[in-house]
Amino acid sequence: MSSSSLYVAIGLLAMVASWYVIPRRWMRLLSILARTITGLRTRKVEVDGVKWHYLEGGKGPTLVILHGLAAEADHWLGVAGPLRRQFHVLVPDLPGFGDSQPPEGLGFQVDEQSRRLDAWLDRIGVDECILAGNSMGAWVAAHFAAHHPDRVEALWLMDAFGVTSAKHSDLMAQYLGGDDNPFLVDSMRDYGRLVTLLFNKAPQVPYPLARAGYLNTARLQGELPRIIDEFLGQSTPLEALAPRLTMPVLIEWGEEDRATHPEGARVLHKLIPGSTCVLHPDVGHLTMIEAPTLAVQSFQTFAQANNLTAREATEATARVWYPQKTRGPKAPCLASPCDNRQRQFLMNRRPYSRGRLMVWRRLPQKLSSSAGLSNRMARSSVRLLTNSCTLQSSPAVPILRSPMS
Q1: Which of 126, 209, 338, 385 could crosslink 333 through cysteines, CB 3.0-4.6 Å?
Q2: pTM here?
Q3: For 355, left (φ over 0), alpha (ψ -120 to 50), or beta?
Q4: Which long-range contacts link 223-227 to residues 24+ away (Cβ below 8 Å)?
């Protein structure tokens, strides 16, 4: 074997070894690649002594997206990438998580996180925005919108924590039971169990990337008990905030969510007048990772229905058809009978044959999540029924169950 071949072989072996020895470095490289593919740029700013890291991309109305507990901005890449074609997207690592300031010395009550969000938006010059969030981020977004309605044009709540009157989810039942706290991750086995609770179908992830995810979570363990206690035990419930949410609100939930019970969607839907509620079958707590296409399409149609977009749909957006004739069964209104004068929700498998408003689009996802999480929904054709019809006995719109291929 020549010396050059030997050097190449040694280099390849070193790369393979590094894949297992320093998985977080590989995770960071993959994150940088994913951000580049999706067209999002990395920004950093310091506000009141707190360091913020965030992703930014696109032009149009400003859409601010907040991640959940012990998560990070990169978890939204599969959704933020397509949406940046219509919106100016901002996805921060909330202080305490990701690449922003570590959690030591920070408060994690929802009102405290809302205050920091207010200061950050002031610092980067955002006066008004569409605000979105998943899990803890949805709770923070709702609190901010309730206290600053003049700054929030619309609200997108995905699998939100904070609905105290709903049934306890599997995760919350374990947490409140006190015997086995699912939030505490002391080993790869604990991390795997937590991932199982967050997804309907746990993704198949290469071991090094799974270990990198575990290490990212484990580094919070010293502060996580305090964070959880402040976040869950010292924050205003969503039920108290809901009546103050007067802007258009999209409530989106996975029907197989084992972290926040899907009943929370129905509770919020009843409390927020005029809200739109969409339930996704076979989807867990992290809809933006497990079913990014569904998340993108449901928000795009909600945005179009509420005139939130600044320009016409591009090739990355869902297409909308208004056929001449409508045939086929009408999807039921689950709350009460619909006014016949209003448009009904219609559904079918052929986009041109039935339905007053049909969304049908194959959205190829160029991105595989930085954590190697499943992108199985990205290549499926999804038909999502999304309009609203006025109810005779309630100002709220019906709960929709989005069909999957």
Answers
A1: 338
A2: 0.74
A3: left
A4: 223/96, 223/103, 223/104, 224/70, 224/183, 224/184, 225/181, 225/184, 226/108, 227/69, 227/96, 227/103, 227/108
